[in-house]
């Protein structure tokens, strides 16, 4: 993370027009865990010494990720991100829209540094993933309008919105490291399942996280009536008064909405259920990591990162 | 145009999720003159038989252009485009934002079909142009907030927002056709100056066009207080009552605003001035076309297209 930070924490855009590029730089300056680019480097290092190209693609991935954050925050009307005003809140929606656009274009500028022998394969993975992330965001918005979402549909949506980028980050790193098709598929599937585990934890933190550490307003998903893992489970298992209260709360904007929904989650055992679900996906992920044909000592850092991501409290 | 239409008028996106991809297809179905992709093909044909790769890049250019239209219409709050509701009006802003995003990604998928020997150069031109178009849109929005814009600044903005894409379309076609650096620069400059002439005509049509043929609401720029070529000239030369009335109208939303501003334009001779300005840029453009080192019969179609674009009434 530190190595990537040293490489990434520079200015990425021109000075002029400042009305366009200052918001872009502001967005990157909000920081974040840089998990996806680090995964690209780690996927690369699993097979070889980290190559300069892996840094270029890692940068493209982080720029792409920030592009999605800027645009998603507009769509979700999110006021805060990492404890700071979101781009459209600090500036305005049009500028945020356009800053996101140039960030996506800049991502492709980094991808364009990959050598001729790999560029088509990398762009192909990058584009497919980018499309899927957009599909995931659209499904996420569609689901907000539904009263009920099946767990299976939610997992599919989360797979698109979150997991494919984690999977593709690892895979693009691996491809640049010379991974064959079989290994490239296993590392992708490792990332895909890890991504679901990651999202279970994210949903968990929205309801049960420490606001100081989390950086976002706790209960944001609840206020937006998002069908998270916890909400879907609660809707599935709640009975009697809890079921009725949950239905009522989903239609209300009462000031104690978050508090009361969280209480129902607890009474339904949604917290414990989520912990087990996370372990299930984590274990599938670890099986795919196990199946990658490199000596096991090389896999240690990815094992550690995966465990960290699924247990983090921020 | 017909050849490109046959190639382009197919489905470009998957079926699912329809909430994302139907708006994208709707946007492409609104039609348009397909000028930019045709210019890519013509730039290619100036040097060689049209290659399959030129069709791929032409498609990328038209998808990119549609991406900018979808996003610009959101930012400009434009209700209509080519006589039909804009994407965000027919669907909603979030969906339009995301449909634009996937359209840009799809553009890069087409660019990715260019062979290894040319792909880096093509993506480099494509990205630089895409960034400039975003810069132009940002400056355009910035200028709406200013009371006065210098003609020079407006021409710079228009160069970015409109001309660079026309210039780059021709140039990318030329590069794929094997043009050397000198010729590639001349065709770029031909496009750049033609683009300014094109915009002068566009601004002219907004005020003086026939609404039936134009497809957009006449006076849209005036209602949005856009500093067009006509407005900038009128602000420069209007005196006495006209000057005062123009200042007042710029701050008003009165129902006869368009009519009265157009009348001032006429009294200032802005229509005739615009015609001369258009001719000036057209003549610089033709000089660059002249300077391209291919036999002159090959240049005829570009000459005709340029004349058509600068004289069109729709």
Features:
mainly alpha; 16 helices; Farnesyl Diphosphate Synthase; homodimer; 2 strands; 75% helix; 314 residues
Helix content of chain A: over 70%
**What strand order characterises the main sheet of chain A?**
1-2
CATH architecture of chain A: Orthogonal Bundle
* Biggest interchain interface, per-side counts: A-B, 37 and 38 residues
The named CATH superfamily of chain A: Farnesyl Diphosphate Synthase
CATH names the topology of chain A as: Farnesyl Diphosphate Synthase
Structural class of chain A: mainly alpha
Oligomeric state as shown: homodimer
Total beta strands of chain A: 2
Q: Span between N and C termini of chain A?
A: 16 Å
Describe this structure in words.
The structure is a homodimer of 314-residue chains. Chain A is mostly helical. Chain A has one domain (2-311): Farnesyl Diphosphate Synthase (Orthogonal Bundle), CATH 1.10.600.10. The first copy, chain A, is built from 16 helices and 2 strands. Chain A has helices spanning 2-8, 18-29, 35-45, 52-76, 87-90, 93-111, 116-144, 151-176, 181-208, 211-214, 220-223, 229-237, 240-250, 257-267, 270-291, 300-311, and strands at residues 80-81, 84-85. The first copy, chain A, has a two-stranded antiparallel ribbon with strand order 1-2. In chain A, a hairpin with a 2-residue loop joins β1 (80-81) and β2. In chain A, α2 (18-29) crosses α6, α4 packs antiparallel against α6 and α15 (270-291) packs antiparallel against α16 (300-311). Chain A binds chain B through residues 16-17, 19-20, 71, 74-75, 94-95, 97-98, 100-102, 104-106, 108-109, 111-112, 116-117, 119-120, 123-124, 127, 130-131, 134-135, 137-139, 141-142, and chain B through 16-17, 19-20, 71, 74-75, 93-95, 97-98, 100-102, 104-106, 108-109, 111-112, 116-117, 119-120, 123-124, 127, 130-131, 134-135, 137-139, 141-142.
